[in-house]
Specification:
Structural class: alpha/beta
Number of helices: 10
CATH superfamily: P-loop containing nucleotide triphosphate hydrolases
Distance between the termini: 57 Å
Strand content: 15-25%
Strand order of the largest sheet: 6-7-8-3-9-10
Number of domains: 1
Low-confidence stretches: 249-257
Mean pLDDT: 91
Number of strands: 10
Order of helices and strands: EEEHEEHEHHHEHEHEEHHH
Length: 259
Amino acid sequence: MTIPCISIKNMTMAYGDFIIQRDLDFTIDRGDIFIIMGGSGCGKSTLLMHMIGLQSPAKGDVFYGEESLWHADHKTRQRILKQTGVLFQSGALLSSMTLAENIALPITEHTLLGSQRIREIVSYKLALVGLAGFEDYYPSEISGGMQKRAGLARAMAMDPEILFFDEPSAGLDPVSAKLLDDLIRSLRDNLGATVVMVTHELASIFAIGTNSVFLDPETKTMIASGAPQKLLVESRDPKVIRFLTRGETENREKNNTKD
């Protein structure tokens, strides 16, 4: 029996008495590009925070393999989370540091490697995301798409087994967003990483998503899970279908307005 990479079991997320989502149960397999999707305010980013140890659940747990995240002691939790890398929506690069310094930061903090070896790793990570030669640039000197790729390089600095992305395509033009999608899929294929991604972008969901969960803000629970393409064909839930076909609806409305 294969042990899932991550399991969410009977989890409720809440702020005090206010329930965000309840009864969440799903698994993420190794090698998945797993999409967390749903309408605005459904708790997608909050779920991500629970999965990376930044927010504790009101009930239930997150398991990495067979290890509990939220019932582990601090030392064990830190060991579990060392296998993860995170790209936040903003990219979260430090503006006062060069790209090389940004990417070197987690390596410097968590290893005893020498400066020459760290420079080699930084150059390699930047090359992986198509930014070879940009070591000495500051975030303000590169485009938004390049900042996202630099943020991805930093997320990969410690060779994580699992990468978490919060709306990685937010603010990017369609061409840059597609290039980022292609890069994420390439890294999954070449490095064997598992990817967990919060996004509402249909192009990304269908282009690279292999599995997913759909969170509903009204019932405050998950109402669908599975490969996005399969959900589009097989789901009978109108909320899921409306979400996954909203681009077609928008196009029809635009055409009707032109007519």
